[in-house]
Amino acid sequence: MAFTAAVYETSGVLFQPQSETGAKREGAQRLSSSQELELWRQRAEDMARKYQELLKNYRQMKAAQKEEHEQYRNNQKLLSDVLANCRNLELAIQAAKLNEASSPTVAALITGMQQVLDNQLAQLNEHGLLETVEPQPAEMPDPELHETVGSVASDLAEGLIAEVVEPGYTCSGKLVRKAKVFLAAPAGGPAADIHREAR
Question: Which residues are CB-contacts of 147 (< 8 A; sequence separation ≥ 6)?
Answer without folding.
Answer: 168, 178, 179, 180, 181
